[in-house]
Design a protein that fits this description.
By secondary structure, the chain is of the alpha/beta class. The chain has 2 domains: about 160 residues, Roll (ph1033 like fold); about 140 residues, Trna Endonuclease, Chain: A, domain 1 (3-Layer(aba) Sandwich). The strands form 3 sheets. Strands 1, 2, 3, 4, 5, 6 and 7 form a 7-stranded mixed sheet that branches. A 5-stranded mixed sheet has the order 8-9-10-12-14, sandwiched between helices. The protein has a two-stranded parallel ribbon with strand order 11-13. Helix 2 packs across helix 3 and helix 8 runs parallel beside helix 9. The longest helix is centred in the N-terminal third of the chain and has 17 residues.
């Protein structure tokens, strides 16, 4: 059975032209060496567990989130990809997407003798190029975040692109969503991000609100995702942030864990797409203890709306918000004497 994938060939499609001319796709992680041993593992789970141990031995300054995401991508490229599988390869410089078919098994060479430094490769055939504008917004967003991603939820649209036939889009414009519905829609779209891209989004959101990240991914096993500081004219606050992409509630154990990592001159914050229990809120604000700033889903939405104009275009594309044109006179009111 044919599977459908999205793959990126270098940051910003840096090596797309090289791959296109020589008919290959490739991924990096050169320091891991030849990964063909994964093919002899008894199961995907066995291969993944061994890969995680190998990855951690080579790359010590990584979070568990990074290990899980990146090893998952490597597993797909080395072991899950099959001949005849179809993939989409974004070409950012041409604002197009190249459709290809996998024709070769996994290969590794120390030096391929070309301009692409990626050692993990597969040979391919090219089917056709399509303008990026022909893709739905949802499919475009799926191709932004990871190096290797399954496109199974887009099968119908991808097959239409492969066969060069129109893909039927939902008919008629949907009614504008505002108020509580707007908040729910923003959270829903943020939940589409995998954990690492969501941490990157949060770091970016904080940066446009005045935060300067020292380390986007804080090194260690203390659960810190973002490390940096806020500066004002009067004071600089060292801040460590935990990012929790969940749909439920966080309890006071998360607050206690974060507080336990903070030095005497450090402050903490927790940002989540979910909510906090009453006990978590009470613990965060406990008198005599270091205060922990809690940003729940409503606070996160407020931050997004307050700084939407400053967000990177890729995040605006993900959220796809529009501002209402309100007459100036409707923005004011007269108080009673």
């Amino acid at each position: 059975m044919v599977a459908y994938w999205g793959i990126r060939l270098g940051e910003g499609g840096k090596y797309v032209d090289e791959g296109y001319s020589k008919k290959f796709i490739a991924i990096g992680w050169e320091n891991l060496g030849d990964l063909s041993w994964m093919l002899s593992s008894e199961s995907d789970e066995d291969a993944l567990n061994k890969l995680k141990l190998h990855y951690k031995r080579i790359n010590r300054d990584v979070t568990n989130s990074q290990v899980g995401i990146q090893c998952g991508e490597l597993l797909r490229f080395v072991r899950t990809f099959k001949k005849e599988d179809i993939f989409l390869l974004p070409n950012q410089s041409e604002r197009s997407v190249i459709i290809g078919k996998i024709t070769g098994d996994y290969e590794w060479k120390d030096n391929w003798g070309d301009k692409c430094p990626f050692q993990n490769r597969r040979s391919v055939e090219w089917i056709r190029k399509v303008p990026r504008s022909e893709l739905s917004a949802k499919l475009k967003n799926s191709l932004v975040w990871l190096t290797v991603i399954s496109l199974e939820e887009h099968i119908s649209e991808v097959e239409s692109l492969v066969n060069d036939i129109p893909h039927e889009q939902p008919k008629g414009p949907s009614a504008p969503v505002s108020g509580k519905g707007l908040s729910e829609r923003i959270i829903e779209r943020l939940m589409r991000l995998d954990p690492r891209p969501f941490e990157e989004f949060t770091s970016h959101l904080l940066s446009v609100s005045g935060f300067e990240a020292a380390n986007r991914q804080y090194v260690g096993d203390k659960g810190i995702d973002i490390d940096g500081y806020f500066s004002t004219e009067l004071v600089t606050l060292n801040l460590k942030v935990q990012v929790k992409r969940i749909s439920g509630s966080l309890g006071n154990n998360v607050v206690l864990q974060l507080r336990g990592t903070l030095g005497t001159d450090e402050h903490g914050a927790i940002v989540t797409t979910g909510t906090f229990t009453r006990q978590a809120i009470e613990e965060a604000e406990s008198p005599g203890k270091k205060n922990i700033k809690l940003v729940d889903r409503d606070g996160l939405v407020d931050l997004v709306l307050s700084h939407y104009d400053e967000l990177d275009d890729r995040y605006k594309s993900l959220l796809n918000l529009r501002k209402k044109d309100i007459p100036l006179t409707d923005q004011f009111f007269v108080e009673h004497d």
